[in-house]
């Protein structure tokens, strides 16, 4: 068994050893809440899926070049993985009725029968999670993903009406007077505990205090993929010269090091 296939029982150990922070966070939240909203199900579900040669290879040059691989969960295993978690929250019957379709859809077995590819870092970083979502890139969206849940809706409205075009953060110090500053893209400034919790999550992954400052420096300067690359290097004690461009590349590179 290589990188191209894993079973449900492997996922927990792999999440701890080889998932990047965005997927580790989704996995932990799924285990905790037994539920993920649509954006989270897509981001984690596509990351976990099996590499399907053929259609899959056409879409992504990095996959084509064999540089990255999906984690490798086959459709039946994916259904069983998601059902085990969701059943605890919504019951098995509701899972079959409302959620199984979406998983089959991700695997190209429903609807337009597109065999969807896992999301790249670029796509995840530019996504726009809202309060209650757990998808996105924690290095960019940590205030939303790890901060307190008490964001005033007026603050989000302020952001939407004042923020310049997409991808731009609310400017530093531009207080709206409504409390913690949180934008519709899940970032912003405010004392909501997000930074502390990001540090705690990195520490749980195995980032030591010296490397932590370098990672946080990249976060503050909005170099999210570099922050992820430094995390990879700190956790694995090995360099990652190409940098992290894709969560599945993080996974593949990690497995290569751990299995060497
Ligand atoms: Fe995930 Fe990419 Fe962000 Fe790393 S940089 S946490 S792999 S989206």
UniProtKB/TrEMBL annotation:
[4Fe-4S] cluster binds at residues 22, 121, 137. It comes from the Eukaryota. The chain holds residues 258 to 517 of 524 of the full protein. This is DNA primase large subunit. Transmembrane segments: none annotated. Belongs to the eukaryotic-type primase large subunit family. DNA primase is the polymerase that synthesizes small RNA primers for the Okazaki fragments made during discontinuous DNA replication. Residues 13-141, 195-251 form the DNA primase large subunit C-terminal domain.
């Amino acid at each position: 068994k290589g990188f191209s296939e894993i079973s449900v029982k492997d996922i927990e150990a792999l999440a701890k050893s080889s998932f990047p922070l965005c997927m580790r966070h989704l996995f932990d939240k799924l285990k905790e809440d037994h539920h993920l909203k649509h954006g989270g199900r897509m981001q984690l579900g596509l990351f976990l899926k099996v590499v399907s040669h053929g259609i899959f290879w056409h879409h992504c040059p990095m996959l084509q070049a064999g540089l990255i691989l999906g984690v490798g969960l086959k459709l039946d295993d994916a259904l069983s993985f998601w059902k085990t978690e969701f059943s605890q929250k919504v019951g098995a019957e509701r899972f079959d009725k409302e959620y199984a379709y979406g998983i089959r859809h991700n695997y190209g077995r429903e609807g337009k029968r597109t065999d969807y590819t896992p999301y790249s870092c670029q796509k995840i970083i530019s996504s726009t999670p809202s309060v209650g979502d757990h998808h996105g890139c924690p290095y960019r969206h940590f205030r939303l993903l790890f901060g307190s849940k008490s964001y005033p809706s007026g603050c989000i409205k302020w952001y939407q009406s004042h923020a310049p075009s997409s991808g731009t953060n609310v400017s530093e110090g531009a207080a709206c007077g409504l409390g913690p500053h949180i934008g519709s893209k899940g970032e912003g400034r405010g004392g909501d505990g997000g930074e502390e919790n990001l540090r705690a999550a990195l520490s749980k992954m195995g980032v030591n205090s010296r490397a932590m400052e370098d990672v946080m420096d990249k976060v503050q300067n909005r170099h999210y993929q570099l922050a992820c690359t430094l995390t990879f290097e700190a956790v694995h004690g090995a360099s990652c010269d190409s940098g992290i461009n894709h969560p599945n590349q993080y996974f593949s590179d990690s497995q290569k090091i751990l299995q060497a």
